[in-house]
Design a protein that fits this description.
The chain is of the alpha+beta class. It folds into 2 domains: 136 residues, Fructose-1,6-Bisphosphatase, Chain A, domain 1; 107 residues, 3-Layer(aba) Sandwich (D-Maltodextrin-Binding Protein, domain 2), CATH 3.40.190.80. It is built from 6 helices and 16 strands. Its cofactor is Mg(2+).
Length: 277
Amino acid sequence: MPVIDHSGDLALLVAAAQAAAPIACAYGAPKVWDKPDGGGPVCEADLAVDAMLRERLGAARPGYGWLSEETADAPERLKAERIFIIDPIDGTRAYLEGSRDWAHSLAIAENGRITAACVLLPRRELLYTATLGGGAMLNGAPIRASTETDPARATLLGPRLAMSPEHWTGGEVPPVRRAFRSALAWRLCLLAEARFDAMLTIRPTWEWDIAAGSLILTEAGGTATDRRGAMLSFNKPHPQSDGVLAGGALHEVLLARLDAAPDGPAPDPSDPDPSAA
């Protein structure tokens, strides 16, 4: 089957992310408020980046739909064959704390599948990119996911909740080391470059948090599914997945040990993984 060239879409995403970086970095102390219904913090930088991206990307691809964390959802996107899926600032809490661990996460989906993706961490000077069938890159160099299959030698990115015994068959938590990073997009990218071996979120997860990173990981040879092993799909009427299990070779090992029976915790619109410690 011939590989479709998505390089034009990727170039568009990269240029937009690079244009977003100085906007976000220019705010020293942005105004902050809480989203309705306990939706977590949002700041003026989130909205400024979102507005610029929507104008720029929409002008370049007027036929594409739009799904963004900071734009009110509209049903018109469901009719679009191709759609932008955007998180203007992934890791707003980290951004507000002055951390470097936040990202611009931009992706394009076609008929539910991500075809081009870009994750830029301006404060770390890291640019992750991928196109469907074209491989994954970090700052222009190819990257590959981990080949580790032994949990005892592996490190898993996730909140404390992911390591609760009730989520594992027989209550037996695998002997992985646990670490945490704020931005979900960056977690997936860290797996793609084999800095870590796996990632798990139990809570329902918004599409904009994982769209770009999921393609970067899979193009690096990894796997990303929901927590029950179903392949991820995008531009759904309710744009969430049932958690995320992702990794290199360890994905299959952990999936066999996860207990898929219990329902996950109730959705938390502010942050699918609020527990960092």
